[in-house]
Amino acid sequence: MAIRINLDRVMSSRGMTLTELADRVGITLANLSVLKTNKAKAIRFSTLDALCRALGCQPGEILEWTPEEPLQDDDSLTD
Question: Does the pTM of the predicted model rise above 0.85?
Answer without folding.
Answer: no
